[in-house]
Amino acid sequence: MVCSWDSPGIEFDSATEIRSLLNIKAWGSAAVVKSGERGRSRGNSNRRVTLKDVAKRAGVTTAAVSMALKNNPRIGEATRKRIAKIAEELGYRVDPNVASLMRYLRSNRRPEFAETIGFVYAYGDAEEFKQAIALEGLFRGAVDFADRQGYKIEPFWLREEGMTQARMNSVLVSRNIRGLILPPLPENHAKLKFDWNRLAVISHALSLDEPEIDNITSHQYYSVRLAFEKCRELGYRRIGLALNRVHSDRTEHRWLAGYLSSSRLLPAEEQVPEYLGPPNREFLNWYRDNQPDAIIVAKMHFREALDESGIQVPEDVAMAFLNLARHTDDDSRSSYAVPLEFLDTGYHDAYTAPGEMAGVVHNFYEMGQMSASQIIAALQQNVFGVPKFAKNTQVKGSWVDGRCVPKRKSRKTKA
């Protein structure tokens, strides 16, 4: 068996050497499994092909083989391809038992500093960053995960005074930043121009059109279906959806798709046409014409519009929110759901009081951990550049009960 530590110069050719290193007298039969014919030395059908076998055939060192098979750019591309071909011809395979052992050993060592990963914030400056609940959750999740692996997450401000995309790219090159996490972007159909060939990158922005890279986002389609289902369970039957068209576009209309797939399966008398537009007079006319008993929204502006017109939530209509986040009070340390935008706009306490909001909470912290995990894996495997086929990982949100969607009782007739 062969094992390679992260440091390419340390190689083990047998279980005996590993036992000696660990001072283990016996592994026990559970650590040894039979393997198929592939992965055996052709000269001896009972011996696995090792890195030394590949190195001997290729005329290089075992360290060079280890780095080449990890796609390390320190080995030239032509040499990497040649070594990979030789390894395939010989039937070399990584021993899963030794690989598992090495992961266990590394997990019990305090990680040394590896490198810095950039968190490119595209809204404003450091002060605005502190007010953004979603970004704070993503950042904290990424930082906590990366720290345990020996990596550092550092924010970079794309919109600070004097900064351009070209200058930001130069900063990343000069700092030798090879990994990037891109949080949500402020505009729809955004385009970023960095030297992607030298970067491992993952995005949390569906609004990024170019380049098409792997992203991790909330499961918007599921969020609407979850909110719709919870409203039905609480006794509501005519459930509407009110979205600003711009916000619907930012999510690739996934909220709208989730709503249509839920509402259009109901009897005709329970179906409510969706409203796509700003919270203005047309929205109020839509409400009066369709008389929904619950409305699913993404932004607080729709509740404000109702309040200003004398329509009360939840007395006249219930309201479930799709864009909620967990907020921890600095004084009481209690955690409760608030709309994402409330810190920026300073909504009245009645809108953000503990237990007020009902709807779907995004799991931003978990998404931040996932993005850090994927970037670190890409860095360790030397996977850089724009993927041929971009992947979208969707993380489901969680429903929270609140006073905005109480269990339905008989209502007075609406005027």
Structure description:
With 415 residues, this protein is an alpha/beta fold. It has three domains: 3-107, lambda repressor-like DNA-binding domains (434 Repressor (Amino-terminal Domain), Orthogonal Bundle); 116-218 and 366-397, Response regulator (Rossmann fold), CATH 3.40.50.2300; 220-363, Response regulator (Rossmann fold, 3-Layer(aba) Sandwich), CATH 3.40.50. Helix content is 37%, strand content 19%. It has 16 helices and 19 strands. The strands form six sheets. Strands 12, 13, 14, 15, 16, 17 and 19 form a seven-stranded mixed β-sheet that branches. The protein has a four-stranded parallel β-sheet with strand order 6-5-7-9, covered by helices on one side. Helix 3 (62-69) crosses helix 4 and helix 9 packs parallel to helix 11 (254-263). It starts with a strand and ends in a 15-residue tail after the last strand.
Overall SS class: alpha/beta
**What's the end-to-end separation, in Å?**
80 Å
- What is the CATH C level class of the largest domain, in words? Alpha Beta
Number of helices: 16
**CATH architecture call of the largest domain:** 3-Layer(aba) Sandwich
Shape: elongated
Please report the total strand number as a whole number: 19
Taking all Cα atoms into account, the compactness measure Rg is 27 Å
| Share in β-strands | 15-25%
Total domain modules = 3
Report the CATH topology name of the largest domain: Rossmann fold
- Overall average pLDDT: 81
Largest sheet: 7 strands, mixed
What proportion of the residues is helical, as a percent range?
A: 25-40%
CATH superfamily of the largest domain: Response regulator
Q: Uncertain runs with pLDDT below 50, 5 residues or more?
A: 1-38, 344-348
